[in-house]
Amino acid sequence: TEKSAQEVYSLFLEKRAVKQGLVYNPSDPESRAIVRLACLCRQHENGQGVSDDFKQLEREERSALINYLNADGICQQAFLLFNAPAVIENARNAKIGVPR
Prior knowledge:
The protein is 60% helix and 0% strand. The protein is an all-alpha fold. The N and C termini lie far apart (42 Å).
């Protein structure tokens, strides 16, 4: 059977979550956001630090990130975070507030 773009992407996130050591629930927006954020942070094998840091954010910050990171560009308007992993990596290297 042919899968929709959303289903294919959900399968991708599920496989990434397994490698990152994260729990992924496709119906839980926070779970999806954490896995996507771990991908953006290039945490291919250990996403627990991203998850821990995410959960320490203020409720409003978490909510905003959940909304932005769950927008798929197919059903809802989204932003292309072009080169976002490089920006995050450079922020870590410059020690401007993004912990390793």
